[in-house]
Amino acid sequence: MLLINPLDANDITREAPARTKTFTGRFLYASELFRCPRGVGTPRQAKGTPSPVVYYCDSKSGAFTASRRTYLLRQSAILAWEYAVLDLLQFASHQQEGPESTPEGVFTYPEWNVSLEKWIERIITHTFAWFVVGRIMCDSRCRLASIIFVGLGFHSPSEWPPVFGKMKDAYTLRKLWGTFWHQMLRPTLTAVSKWITCGVLHLPKPSLLERYTNVFFVFLQSALLHTMLDMVAGIPLEFSGTVPFFTITTLGFMIEDGVQEVYKRVTGSNTQAISIWKRAVGYTWVISWVGVTATWFVHPNMQNTPPSKTSFIPYSFSDHVGAQSVAGFAVISGLVLIFRFGGEV
Fold first, then answer.
1. For FRET with 179, which of 67, 134, 256, 285 sits at 20 to 30 Å CA-CA?
2. Is residue 26 a contact partner of residue 13, using CB atoms and an 8 Å limit?
3. For the chain, how far is it from start to end, CA to CA, in angstroms?
4. 3-state secondary structure of 64
5. Where do the Wax synthase domain residues begin and end (predicted)?
6. Is it the case that residue 226 has pLDDT exceeding 80?
């Protein structure tokens, strides 16, 4: 990675705060490249990294003004709510068998020739799994890490911007992956893809060929990483659907860009404002695309881990104090987040 995207001691010295001018300070700062792959606060900061939440910022200047105590209190409140939601989801999963469950250790390829009702069920299930379950699981782990590092005084609150963007912005596939979803791997994946497209293949830049080839290699790398995770989890390579799921996103980008370009030429509209009906069409498109293509990704995972054996959290309060109590806590804490801490979705 350093050969493709060089970074030496001089770069570290220029980027590091004044307190890290010593060798030890630079060494510790450099080690954080592994902790903070988004490069927050440096010239290498990943494109699409969310801005600090409004609650932490001055209403006039927009500058980050929240104290460490305020930051930790809000992060802890959100983490407690996320834990309660995951607890409820795990409890609900244990009460039923999935519609596509098979005997343990037996894998099959997903069926595509199914009824309309089945597709609607899949789209709803996959969308919920992606936008709610997947997001909360990723976000809660990073939020816990932020509480630890900021709480121990290793980092300032401003060094931990939100991991995910706002769900309301995910009305195109590009915004879904480039704005809403986490950008933890973006600097690494884009550096390698640009090296392949421009340094190895020498594709003309800018060009449509270079543009979509670059996108393809970004998602191919992500697919290979997730394939390794599938294999570690026990999913055989031949049944892992991560490669088709991620790489076909390139086709989705092409369709999306093509439709937008045709619309601009037909209507002559170049306005940047997004009307309500455009957002509605966009949300429908994104949900439909993810709901259908995620079949490759979700199907083997459901067979590998049936709903009755789903494990999102290490300890379930629902099993000990009851799901109703946990649900009540989730509702009350959710309202507190909205009205007291300016919760953002």
1. 67
2. yes
3. 34
4. strand
5. 160-247
6. yes
